[in-house]
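Task card 7
Instruction: Convert sequence to structure tokens.
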Amino acid sequence: MTDYRYVFGTMGGEQQLAEIACYGVTMDMQMNKGGQWQGTFQLDQTGMQNSDLLAASIPGRCWIAVERNGIAIWHGFIWSRVYSAQSKSVQLFALSFEQYPKQRLIRQDTTFTAVEQRNIFSSLWTQMQSDTGNSNVNVIVPGAFTTVVPKNVSVLATDFKYYDGIMSGLADAVDGFDWYIGVSKTGTYYQKNLVIGYPTLGVGQSPGMNVFEYPGNITQYYLTEYMSDAGTNVFVMGNGEGSDMLVSEVVATDLVAGGFPRYDQVVSRKDLDDLTQIQGIARQQSQIKRPPIAVIKVTVKGNLTPEFGSYNLGDTCRVVIKDPRWPGNGFSGYKRLLKWSLTPQASDNTEEADLVFEGDPDV
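Output:
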């Protein structure tokens, strides 16, 4: 049986307060957004004072770290708790540290001119954690990146803008980047590292990539096919205005010949002034937006190979499916993991993880 530990501590000073047995736990993590955790503990636990349990789980003041078989897999801060008098239980809800910038205003005039976007992103984290009033949540920021995509950012303190809005505007742009906060454990200390990758993070296609199969380690899957964001005619707009704008169009002629009506999609890349590069992106986007867009969401057993923890956000995995939905030889394709949701096992069920791949409209 997989071993889970739930360790609680204080945001200020990183002091560990208690290890608390929790049940009804679920947690998730998503690229560029972070995740959530929820679970419940009982009062009157053997060997623990109720006052200590409550002091270790104060919303806003305390954090929770989750370990799976001795390896830290999730770290965040308590955001709310609900006490039930009848059951004498405390339900907790926590947010991962990726969501902390949503709670912080930019309170100093901030300007970056022609600075690499990842360096702007890192500098905003450093600035946020350097402010007054216990601002440092101990996220370790990476060193400087070589300039690839320079951008301009200007925010006044009087604008009262949150850090998250500016950060997301950089990372989630068409020419943006991947990021998340990785957690590891050294001794009794949980280290939080800001991980940034341009254009993406994760391991690409390789002979040793993780394989998920149905039937096999996949216990259930859902296939969603949709037309929003899909197009038979994809336009990529580069630098310039009006008739001087650089534009490349790619048409899925086989789909049109096969009976699809025309659907147009536009991708803006105003940062590009190289037509050859724009044409390459248009070909790529034509495949990504090829209708109908198909998304596979799978449920796997966490303890089967590949075991949960052997794959990371951004990794490319191979998905193999053989069932009546795929007549003939079935389905085999490469999918990039962008979100996981984990349900630790209880006494009456198994440990399961839902994996969401690139292309899902919810991510």
